[in-house]
Amino acid sequence: MQSKATISGRPTMSLPSFQWQNYIVYIFFVLVLSFFAVTIGDKGFLTVTNLFNIARTTAMITVIAVAMTFIISAGELDLSVGSTTALAALTCALVMQAGYPWPVAFVAAIASGLVVGSLNGFFVTVIGIPSFLVTLGMMQFIRGVDMRITYTNPVSVTNQTFNSLFGSGKLFGIPSLLIWSVVIALIGHIVLKYTSFGREILATGGNRQAAEYSGVKTRRVKFYGFLLTGAAAALAGMLYTGMMQTARFNFGEGAELMAIAAVILGGTSLFGGKGTILGTFAGSLLIGTINNGLIIMGLDVSEQMMIAGAIIIVAVAFGKKQGQA
Amino acid sequence: MSAADVLQMTDIRKSFGTIPVLKRVSFSLRKGEVHALMGGNGAGKSTLMKILTGVYSKDGGTILVDGQPVEIHDTAAAERAGIAMIFQEFSLIPTLTVAQNIWLKREPRLLGAFINNAEMVRRSRAILHELGVDIDPETLAGTLPVGYMQIVEIAKALSKNARILVMDEPTSSLSEAETEALFELVAKLKASGISIVYISHRMAEILTICDRVTVMRDGEAVMTAPCANLTIAGIVDAMLGAGNAASFEWHDRGPRPEAPPILTVRNLRLPSRVNDVSFDLRPGEIVGLAGLMGSGRTEIAETIFGRRAPVSGEVIFDGTPVRSQSDAIDRGIALVPEDRRKMGLVLDHSVRDNVLLPNLSRFTRNFLVQDAEALKTVTRTIRDLRIKTDGPDKLARLLSGGNQQKIVLGKWLARDPRLLILDEPTIGVDIGAKSEIVETVRSMADKGMAVLVISSELEELMAISDRILVLHGGRIVQDMNRRDLTSEEELHHAIQGHHIGPSDDVAA
Fold this sequence. Notes:
Chain A is mainly alpha-helical. Chain A has 13 helices and 4 strands. Chain A has helices at residues 24-40, 48-73, 81-97, 102-127, 131-149, 160-168, 176-194, 196-206, 208-213, 218-244, 255-265, 277-296, 301-319, and strands at residues 155-156, 170-171, 174-175, 246-247. Chain A has a two-stranded antiparallel ribbon. Chain A has a two-stranded antiparallel ribbon with strand order 2-3. The longest helix of chain A is centred in the C-terminal third of the chain and has 27 residues, at 218-244. Chain B is 32% helix and 24% strand. In chain B, the strands form 6 sheets. Chain B has a 6-stranded mixed sheet, with helices on both faces. Chain B has a 6-stranded mixed sheet with strand order 18-21-22-15-23-24, sandwiched between helices. The chains are: A mainly alpha, B alpha/beta. At the A-B interface, helix 8 and helix 9 of A face strand 1, helix 10, helix 11 and strand 20 of B.
């Protein structure tokens, strides 16, 4: 009896083939977009206003997700971004309410994000607690701070320059929120791909010990990563505030999970070492598009959540390469 | 086949796609024999063993166990035929006890449903006792030293009545003492009629414990001979094929030019093991650091590289003390660490990214990494070190051990270091790549680079060093010129703590 070769050896002779798994987020994006274009194209899905709308509503998630790509690529996680968003929103609103000009409010808000980031960074890199735990605790702690600052009262922002710049304004007909997200994604892309800091982030996440032995100061690199997520969350908080012309304690609830979903959908490895900002951008838009389309289709919130959740899992499943655990 | 053959593999063929990796290979194993299987990476030895253990299926040929033909389609069939692969450490579950690991999924039962824990422990104890090792079956596997894990693996195989064991590089992560213990165990297994296929790159070791050697090259078994008739040189010749292992033979590089030392280590004391170590290293000199496993060699290397702070004493490089690792790297010290997979490489990154990692600052202008310019350096590194890769973007994980080691070496050589420290540079590296690495290091030393080599393979130290320092009891007990050494045995004695050499005027 002839035994047949059941295991085909893959080494050395496999031709460089198109790895479609690497582009799954773009494929899904096109699929979802075409699906909605066909089914609800006549209900206003395809109008410029609606497409801008998608971009506007995803801007905050995009900004957070860009920074999240860095920290995940470095092999860490930041769950505290959602509550930091509200902290920065309240900070900038209160500073403006106290009569200071908006640039002061801007700096104060970013500073609040950096404080949270450096606390996270301190506990992770100096004390050595896993980032999942540190930022889980921080998420809770900061949300408590958010509630305490104004005893859950909203703070309205009347500074029209601020509101227009960070939220409702337009430049050459393009919504400022869209500009913010494109600019941040572009900067993120360049930094991750073309600077030594980006390479060091990826090396740290790929093999921390080997990076250390190669002269990368991995703890410092991770610390900067947490400063980045803190600052990005703060910017997202100002974008929420500008859009709503109000700051609320509950801004950014669940934003950390949406951002992580966008990052992973985009093809960044949850275990570090491999990251792509363009993928993250597409992942964020994909989530926004799904939510937007389902609303136009007239689905109930409960149904929206189920479908969006299912699509995320399916997309990640398709993006998985064979043989990966 | 002779009557005593427990295993007879005949005309085994295997191709991956259109590439033949085994071309009619025959291999036999006698009862109670330790048979070494050697060959460079890609020679086909692991493919042959994967066929034997049911991981791959063969394309043709026959396998006889005890004279009976067997078809080994999967690992379960191999197990039924009494064949077991001994893994080094990764196949035990660290959070289970030794007994639980040995009987995993085959636990003795009570009333057919409940695991009979007492019986399991009792049987484990019996097997371990028979092996003559002192391991409590109720300790957690994860708390055992590496050497013991391997013994538990063997116990597990014996519990399944395995009579043919395949051991792949069994000593590569063992200390000297653990290696001794393993050899004793191997002798015991032999005596009880167990046959062992022994895969290793360490030739001295093979000549010590094996009965026969089979050498594979390019998918063929090119030599099978009793160890008694063999020398290391003979094996190397068979492995290389060309009858040319010149670069792995020592040749006197002549007296080194008199120059002030580039590295001075003075009265170095470290938290563990190292009490008082002093030595000098001159530009262009290759110095070997010999000593037993655990004698503090790696710790000394990491202290020079600035990764560890000494308790007392100092490391002076080029006139000033080394303050930190970044300081060491900036001033031209490079370390090729002992475990390349853990410390040397980001395995899931490309050859290019790995080579660039310590060189990023050099290629950064206006905040951006100049990839086009960097690629030239990477390409040159691949060419100069003869790294076998499809291109700079191939993942390091996909390269052989020898080529991976060349990446680690290459990424530091790209910086033109003035002092290169090599910690166990050729573990798991095939003889071809080994010679090339030695060749590269020699030519860099000829250009003035100082080299410190740490190795457990004395043969290697003998081949490459101009001078050998012997570390024993936390001190440098000997500092000898290579040309004054006549045999590896002398060096062996020295690292065990016996004083040798011309200054030894005490009669034995």
